[in-house]
């Protein structure tokens, strides 16, 4: 039985990657509450000199001790004092008094501004975070009173100011995000929301069902907040360290049954990801290909994605009317890979076309390769115009995927139409499945709909400019190039001809669908159009035939891409269902690998400690003290033998022991020295303490603090 753990630490760093023991929210009076120790996580620059504050609940603001506001008459008293002394509070009376006296706090007031800091971060919080959540989607029963409507977001009648409204606390150092970053309590998702828990010696009754007043001290300031987390039901037991879980039933039934359970991602997905990584990291030897410059504008490490055109080439491409080349390059500004499409020998005369480029840069769609920037350069030895797009590794054009077989064209042109004895079976005709064609139609029409809605036209709906990644994922490439190359400076409105270009997009879409249905580019030629439609009628549904006829036939009115939605019909839901099922499978494969990074960092830390030859001029450092226990634990992990003296290798044993060490469970193990003269019985929590102390000692020495 192979066991796996889920990560309880959100940090990918080696410095703080240990798992915390499973625990729910501690009551405010619990001496073991982890909420009181969160200040240790703050950096040195954030540990300002503590200043004592009290919570003046009548005016709902922090009042420094000794100020004039502190000496004013306060019939209620300080909630902090009552919680410390255990004085019970009648919440019904408390809510009635606060409804009459509570005032909405002013986040820009001086008492809310951190000492020595600027107001920019606070203003960002009040303008971005608070305005976005000023209106709740679902009203909470405890916030239905008129007084609650005047509270700022995050405020509660039954608690003090939230950390976002407190002094010396920014959104980055507030205890609330740290509480949310901890591993969630699994019981929270299994308990009805009406469950409630009481807090001993704090309040007599919670303000509403399922709410508990918690307190937390950070930097000398005490915060009170309402904890709405339901308490786990009595009798529930959860593992105190992470284990492997079986596949979800809906995913297990989608995959073929294997002889043995798989604990790693599928080989097909792994190979696809590896190929993408290899293509992304590919480079060229500059000495072998001197025609490729080392740097173009802010891009470097250029790698040709297409065969480079000969230097003396005169003929131009049929797509754009210019010689083009394509490269993968890395932007030095963000270190991300991009695809550069170079237009040879083009000099940009007027920059008015950049209005259209800015419109293209705003389009973000899953089936469109996003245009990032356009610039001119002489790095290639001549005037060139370069379009920078997002780079999708492993993509190939629809032309190379489906129309690169010369035998398909010969079969299509040599077939004697009308002399067959009946419809030929599709598998013998070499045609594409209709479900695949509809999947392409849904994606291409979705891309056109987004482009046309933005007031632009695609103008590159061609098999040579449509990228296929994975099995069926399509992306329209090279958008915006025609808008720059054919820009007319005499036109006052650059969008005047977009309606005409949009109609041409629909005709181009019809040609692409017809070519896919015939599995041949010869089918879209005018002399073969009747034969192609007969082939579609024989082998495919009437909906597909009607869609092709609608797109290729001239209409007396302006057509829209939305007109083909009734022809797609329920097949849209089929594609949506297939996409979500694919997402479930990929998420399941991700779940198999999610713990590998944490376990690797754990082994990396352990490797820096074990067998270290010398530390602080002490050659016996790794053989004494806490390091000796870790050495024996390393032997317990990897060097066990059977009764016959043969190596005992069990991956589940290694993973289980590492997960228990990371969680620090109280389970005891016996560590035996190599000479078998010493047997030490320790718990995993003791080993974790030794492990963390030793590694922190190494970190301190590496930083020059020892």
UniProtKB/TrEMBL annotation:
Q: Which GO terms describe its cellular component?
A: nucleus; P-body; PAN complex
Q: Is Zinc-finger one of the keywords UniProt gives this record?
A: yes
Q: Which SUPFAM superfamilies match?
A: Protein kinase-like (PK-like) (SSF56112)
Localization per Swiss-Prot or TrEMBL: Cytoplasm, P-body; Nucleus
- Keywords, in A-Z order: ATP-binding, Coiled coil, Cytoplasm, Metal-binding, mRNA processing, Nucleotide-binding, Zinc, Zinc-finger
Enumerate the residue ranges of region (Disordered): 1-29, 104-126, 144-188
Q: Where is the composition biased (Low complexity)?
A: 7-18
User: Which top-rank group of organisms is this from?
Assistant: Eukaryota
Tell me, what is one Gene Ontology molecular-function annotation carried by this entry?
zinc ion binding
Domain Protein kinase residue range list: 312-573
Stretches with biased composition (Polar residues): 117-126
Question: Does the record carry Nucleotidyltransferase as a key word?
Answer: no
What GO biological process term is on the record, naming one? mRNA processing
Using the UniProt record, give the first listed, main subcellular location: cytoplasm
Tell me which PANTHER family the record gives: DEADENYLATION COMPLEX SUBUNIT PAN3, PAN2-PAN3 DEADENYLATION COMPLEX SUBUNIT PAN3
Tell me, what does this protein do in biology?
A: Enhances PAN2 deadenylase activity and has an extensive effect on mRNA stability, generally enhancing mRNA decay across the transcriptome by multiple pathways, including the AU-rich element (ARE)-mediated pathway, microRNA-mediated pathway and the nonsense-mediated pathway (NMD). Its activity is required for efficient P-body formation. May be involved in regulating mRNAs of genes involved in cell cycle progression and cell proliferation. Regulatory subunit of the poly(A)-nuclease (PAN) deadenylation complex, one of two cytoplasmic mRNA deadenylases involved in general and miRNA-mediated mRNA turnover. PAN specifically shortens poly(A) tails of RNA and the activity is stimulated by poly(A)-binding protein (PABP). PAN deadenylation is followed by rapid degradation of the shortened mRNA tails by the CCR4-NOT complex.
Subunit: Interacts with PAN2. Interacts (via N-terminus) with PABPC1 at lower efficiency than isoform 3. Interacts with PAN2. Interacts (via N-terminus) with PABPC1 at higher efficiency than isoform 1.
| Listed name of the protein | PAN3 protein
What is the scientific name of the source organism?
Answer: Ptilorrhoa leucosticta
Its lineage opens with: Eukaryota, Metazoa, Chordata, Craniata, Vertebrata
């Amino acid at each position: 039985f192979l066991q796996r753990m889920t990560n309880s630490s959100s940090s990918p760093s080696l410095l703080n990657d240990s798992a915390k023991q499973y625990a729910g929210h501690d009551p405010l009076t619990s001496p073991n509450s982890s909420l009181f120790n969160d200040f240790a996580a703050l950096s040195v620059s954030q540990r300002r000199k503590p200043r004592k504050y009290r919570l003046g609940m009548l005016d709902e603001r922090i009042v420094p001790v000794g100020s004039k506001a502190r000496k004013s008459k306060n019939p209620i008293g300080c909630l902090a004092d009552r919680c410390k002394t255990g004085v019970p509070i009648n919440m019904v009376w408390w809510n009635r008094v606060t409804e009459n006296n509570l005032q909405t706090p002013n986040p820009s007031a001086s008492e809310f501004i951190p000492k020595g800091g600027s107001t920019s971060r606070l203003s960002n919080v009040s303008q971005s975070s608070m305005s976005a959540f000023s209106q709740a989607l679902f009203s909470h029963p405890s916030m239905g009173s008129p007084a609650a409507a005047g509270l700022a977001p995050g405020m509660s009648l039954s608690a003090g100011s939230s950390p976002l409204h407190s002094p010396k606390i920014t959104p980055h150092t507030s205890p609330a995000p740290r509480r949310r970053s901890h591993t969630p309590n699994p019981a929270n998702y299994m308990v009805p929301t009406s469950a409630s828990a009481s807090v001993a010696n704090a309040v007599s009754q919670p303000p509403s069902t399922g709410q508990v007043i918690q307190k937390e001290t950070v930097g000398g300031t005490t915060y009170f907040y309402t904890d709405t987390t339901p308490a786990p039901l009595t009798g529930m037991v959860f593992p105190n360290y992470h284990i492997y879980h079986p596949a979800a039933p809906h995913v297990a039934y989608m995959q073929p049954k294997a002889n043995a359970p798989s604990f790693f991602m599928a080989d097909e997905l792994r190979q696809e990801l590896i190929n993408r990584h290899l293509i992304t990291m590919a480079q060229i030897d500059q000495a072998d290909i001197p025609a490729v410059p080392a740097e173009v504008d802010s891009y470097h490490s250029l790698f040709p994605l297409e065969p480079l055109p000969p230097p003396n080439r005169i003929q131009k491409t049929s797509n754009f009317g210019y010689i083009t080349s394509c490269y993968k390059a890395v932007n030095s500004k963000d270190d991300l890979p991009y695809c550069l499409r170079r237009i040879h020998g083009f000099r940009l005369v007027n920059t008015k076309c950049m209005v259209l480029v800015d419109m293209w840069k705003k389009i973000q769609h899953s089936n469109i390769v996003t245009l990032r920037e356009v610039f001119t350069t002489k790095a290639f030895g001549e005037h060139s115009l370069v379009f920078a797009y997002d780079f999708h590794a492993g993509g190939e054009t629809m032309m190379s995927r489906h129309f690169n077989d010369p035998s398909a064209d010969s079969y299509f042109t040599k077939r004697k139409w009308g002399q067959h004895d009946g419809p030929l079976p599709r598998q013998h005709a070499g045609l594409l499945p209709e479900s695949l064609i509809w999947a392409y139609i849904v994606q291409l029409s979705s891309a056109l709909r987004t482009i046309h809605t933005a007031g632009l036209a695609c103008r590159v709906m061609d098999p040579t400019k449509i990228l296929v990644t994975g099995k069926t994922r399509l992306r329209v490439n090279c958008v915006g190039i025609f808008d720059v190359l054919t820009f007319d400076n005499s036109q006052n409105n650059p969008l005047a001809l977009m309606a005409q270009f949009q109609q041409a997009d629909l005709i181009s879409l019809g040609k692409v669908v017809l070519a896919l249905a015939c599995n041949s580019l010869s089918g879209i030629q005018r002399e073969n159009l009747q034969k192609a439609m007969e082939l579609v009628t024989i082998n495919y549904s009437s909906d597909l035939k009607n869609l092709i006829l609608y797109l290729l036939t001239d209409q007396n009115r302006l057509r829209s891409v939305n007109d083909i939605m009734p022809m797609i019909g329920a097949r849209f839901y089929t594609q949506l269902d297939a996409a979500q099922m694919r997402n479930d499978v990929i998420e399941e494969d991700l779940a198999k690998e999610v713990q590998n990074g944490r376990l690797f960092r754990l082994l990396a830390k352990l490797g820096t400690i074990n067998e270290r030859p010398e530390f602080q001029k002490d050659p016996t450092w790794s053989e004494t003290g806490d390091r000796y226990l870790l050495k024996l634990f390393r032997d317990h992990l990897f060097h066990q033998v059977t009764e016959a003296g043969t190596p005992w290798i069990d991956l589940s044993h290694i993973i289980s022991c590492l997960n228990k060490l990371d969680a620090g469970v109280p389970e005891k193990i016996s560590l035996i020295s190599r000479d078998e003269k010493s047997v030490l019985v320790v718990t995993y929590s003791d080993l974790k303490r030794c492990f963390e102390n030793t590694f922190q000692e190494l970190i301190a020495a590496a930083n020059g603090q020892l």
